[in-house]
Design brief:
There is one protein chain. With 246 residues, the chain is of the alpha/beta class. It has helices at 15-26, 44-60, 75-88, 114-120, 122-131, 144-158, 173-184, 188-197; strands at 5-10, 67-71, 95-97, 166-171, 205-209, 218-224. Helices cover 39% and strands 13% of the residues. Helix 3 (75-88) links the parallel strand 2 and strand 3.
C-alpha cells in the first residue's frame, strides 16, 4: 500500500495571531509576542478550535485506514493535533516531528507589521514589491520558493512510505498553501492566482487524493471549517507572506 490521501491541518489560533491582529489594528510597527516563534502557544480560542477539529476527525474516521502523522516542531501545531486527537478520542497514529514542516522564516521582518516593514525597512519593502512574494527572500529569512524547496523533499519521502494509506500533516498556513502548490504542480502565476482568492483558516482541514504513487494529486477540499462554529472561524493570515503573525 502507498499514501493516497493527505490531510493538511493548520494550527488553531495562536497568541501571536491575536497579537498581530491587535498590532495591525492599532497601527503599531511591532507585534508584541513574548515567545520565540517555535514556542508560541495556542490562544484559548485556538484550543477550542482544536477540540472542534478533533470531533471532525473522529466523525470522518481519520484512523479507519493505516495512517501516519507528521507534525511541525512548532508548539502551536503540536498542541493543535494533540488536543484534537484527545478531544476526538482518536489514538495517536505513528508520529514524526519534521523540521521541514516549520513555518516560513521571516528573518529581519519577523514580528513586524506591514507598517513596521515600511517604516523600518523601506528598502526591503521595495524589494518585496519588485520581486513579488514568490521570490522575495527577506534578509535572514525564506521566500515562498525556499519553503517549496523543503516541501518537495517532504513529498519525496511520502512516495517512499510503504503501508500507510493516509498521511495527516499538522503545520502552518504557508505550509498548507505551498504543499498544495507542490502537489498540484502550480507555477508562480497559477499559485498567485490561487492564493489571491484562497486563505488558510485556523484549525482548517485541506485534503488531497491520488489513485497511486505516480498518479496526479487532486484537491478534494481547501481550508474546510464547517466543523467550527461561526464564532470560532478565524483566518488570521496576518499578511504572513510579508510580516510574521504566528
Amino acid at each position: 500500500m502507498s499514501v493516497t490521501e493527505i490531510w493538511l491541518i493548520r494550527h488553531g489560533e495562536s497568541v501571536a495571531n491575536v497579537a498581530a491582529a491587535h498590532a495591525d489594528a492599532t497601527g503599531a510597527d511591532v507585534i508584541e509576542v513574548e515567545q520565540r516563534d517555535a514556542d508560541v502557544p495556542l490562544s484559548p480560542l485556538g484550543e477550542e478550535q482544536s477540540r472542534s477539529l478533533g470531533a471532525e476527525l473522529a466523525d470522518r474516521g481519520v484512523d479507519d485506514v493505516p495512517t501516519v502523522l507528521w507534525v511541525s516542531p512548532y508548539r502551536r501545531a503540536q498542541q493543535t493535533i494533540a488536543i484534537a486527537l484527545q478531544a476526538g478520542g482518536v489514538t495517536e497514529p505513528p508520529k514524526r516531528v519534521d523540521e521541514r514542516l516549520r513555518d516560513r522564516e521571516l528573518g529581519v521582518l519577523d514580528l513586524l507589521t506591514r507598517a513596521g516593514v515600511r517604516n523600518r525597512f523601506p528598502d526591503e519593502e521595495r524589494r518585496r514589491q519588485w520581486l513579488g512574494k514568490y521570490y522575495h527572500r527577506p534578509a535572514g529569512g525564506e521566500s515562498w520558493v525556499d519553503v517549496i524547496g523543503r516541501l518537495r523533499s517532504v513529498f519525496a519521502d511520502v512516495d517512499r512510505l510503504d503501508g500507510p494509506v493516509r498521511l495527516v500533516i499538522a503545520a502552518h498556513d504557508a505550509v498548507v498553501m505551498l504543499a498544495v502548490a507542490v502537489c498540484l504542480d502550480l507555477d508562480e502565476p497559477a499559485l498567485m492566482d490561487f492564493a489571491a482568492t484562497h486563505t488558510v483558516a485556523n484549525a482548517s482541514l485541506t485534503t488531497l487524493r491520488r489513485d497511486a504513487v505516480g498518479s496526479p494529486w487532486s484537491l478534494e477540499e481547501f481550508s474546510a471549517v464547517e466543523h467550527l462554529d461561526d464564532s470560532e472561524v478565524t483566518e488570521h493570515s496576518g499578511r504572513k507572506d510579508d510580516a510574521h503573525a504566528g
